[in-house]
Amino acid sequence: MDVAAINFAVKMNAIKVTFLGTGTSQGIPVIACNCLVCKSQNPKDNRTRSSIMISVGDKNIVVDTGPDFRLQMLRENVQNLRLFCLHMNTKIIFQVSMIFVRLIMFLNHP
Question: Cα–Cα distances in Å, from 110 out to 46, 60, 104, 107?
Fold first, then answer.
């Protein structure tokens, strides 16, 4: 997507930001934590690790993937994806490599 297309999308209010996760680095609830939030029955207190998805038309850009990436993509039913990582570590490399492995398996499936 080029700059002109992005500028047009901004003018047309066609950009959507989805908060994929708003939890801590461990997610919420935290294992073995007995605080009110972690013990809450409210579904809003069950949060995955921080990440956002920016959608422009049918293009989705995920910013800062984490260990909950697979769950977040399935939950949001994402069909078209581009990644943008703010930091790179072995967990992210593993997640992205798994996407490519599954893509290759899908393309080679009769």
Answer: 39, 28, 12, 8
Q: Which two tokens stand for residue 39?
A: 């013990």
pLDDT tens sequence across 60-75:
888 887 788 889 999 9
CB 30 within 8 A of CB 48: no
Burial class (CB in 10 A: 0-12, 13-18, 19+), 102: exposed
CATH of the domain at 42: 3.60.15.10
The residue range of the domain holding 43 is 3-108
Q: Could you tell me the end-to-end alpha-carbon distance of the chain, in angstroms, rounded to an integer?
A: 32
pTM: 0.64
Q: How many helices (H) and strands (E) does the chain have?
A: 4, 4
Total tally of structural domains belonging to the chain: 1
CA distances from 31 to 27, 36, 46, 53, 73 (A): 9, 13, 12, 26, 23
